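Example for tutorial group B:
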């Protein structure tokens, strides 16, 4: 169907509350029912009539015998059923052919709306409706774009919320270093340990007034106000520094009772490992635990004077020279 025919079908369906073709189908079905009833009545009437009355001739030999009469009735019934079937088939074909013409004629000329009035038809339930097209009405493409923007906005919101939480945690930690951090919930009180306000002295402004018009003066005043705190820190670090110097680089801090169990365990493992490598494996280890391979890798033990003299006598005897006692030569 073309577009105008579709428009007519929609309009008539909305007006009649059923499709126009349904009306034609009901008419055709009613005619088919009447034709079936007619052929059924014709068949019933012919079967009830006497075969000789409707043109069937009796047999010449003893026509009154029961066998001849029964055979005649069977032949008549067969002919009647066959003829009624042919009549029904012919009638249905004629009905279909002619009512197809009726369907086409009705859809084109009866169940249709003239083109000149098609756009002006207004049904009863159309009263008060505005059919003008709004140029600002949202389209499917615009709605899809808005949905995409909404998803991206929600994703950005979640990202910003995560960054805000991280920044809040960082600010809380910095406030704890300054000494003015506040613990908000009981969970934080249980999980977060109170730390020493390392930079708490920065909050001690002293007599500063916060003069923004003279930043140099304010900075100098702030620096002077922090000098007592810095002096206190120096006084606290002075004895510790002297103790470290007196102990030769802090060696005493890791000796004796001040050694931690980790340091003691490490020294024990190192000592036993060195014994095993030297006694069992037969390796020669240096002072720092390096393996000596027989070549000169540093100064060895210095021989004494007697060992040198004995070595000179052995060399002189091998060469045929007698090496005298150095003490005798000196005398």
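The residue assignment follows.
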């Amino acid at each position: 169907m073309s577009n105008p025919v579709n428009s007519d079908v929609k309009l008539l369906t909305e007006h009649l509350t059923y499709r126009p073709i349904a009306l034609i189908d009901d008419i055709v079905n009613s005619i088919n029912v009447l034709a079936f009833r007619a052929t059924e009545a014709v068949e019933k009437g012919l079967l009830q009539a006497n075969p000789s009355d409707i043109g069937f001739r009796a047999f010449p030999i003893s026509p009154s015998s029961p066998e001849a009469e029964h055979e005649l009735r069977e032949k008549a019934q067969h002919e009647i059923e066959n003829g009624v079937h042919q009549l029904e088939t012919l009638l249905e074909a004629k009905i279909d052919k002619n009512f197809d013409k009726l369907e086409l004629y009705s859809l084109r000329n009866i169940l249709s709306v003239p083109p000149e009035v098609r756009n002006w038809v207004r049904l009863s339930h159309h009263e008060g409706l505005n059919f003008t097209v709004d140029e600002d009405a949202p389209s499917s493409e615009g709605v899809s774009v808005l949905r995409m923007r909404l998803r991206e906005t929600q994703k950005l919101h979640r990202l910003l919320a995560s960054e805000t939480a991280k920044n809040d945690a960082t600010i809380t930690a910095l406030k704890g270093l300054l000494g003015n951090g506040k613990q908000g919930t009981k969970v934080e009180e249980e999980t977060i340990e109170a730390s020493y306000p390392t930079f708490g002295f920065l909050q001690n402004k002293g007599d500063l007034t916060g003069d923004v018009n003279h930043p140099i003066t304010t900075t100098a005043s702030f620096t002077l106000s922090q000098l007592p705190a810095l002096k206190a820190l120096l006084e606290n670090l002075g004895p510790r520094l002297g103790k470290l110097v007196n102990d030769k680089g802090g060696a005493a801090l890791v000796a004796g009772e001040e050694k931690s169990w980790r340091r003691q365990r490490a020294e024990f493992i190192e000592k036993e490992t060195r014994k095993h490598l030297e006694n069992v494996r037969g390796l020669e280890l240096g002072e720092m635990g390096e393996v000596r391979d027989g070549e000169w890798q540093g100064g060895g033990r210095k021989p004494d004077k007697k060992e040198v003299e004995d070595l000179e006598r052995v060399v002189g005897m091998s060469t045929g020279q007698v090496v005298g006692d150095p003490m005798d030569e000196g005398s």
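Residues 183-194, 252-257, 326-331 have pLDDT under 50 and may be disordered. Compare this with the pattern of hydrophobic and polar residues in the output above.
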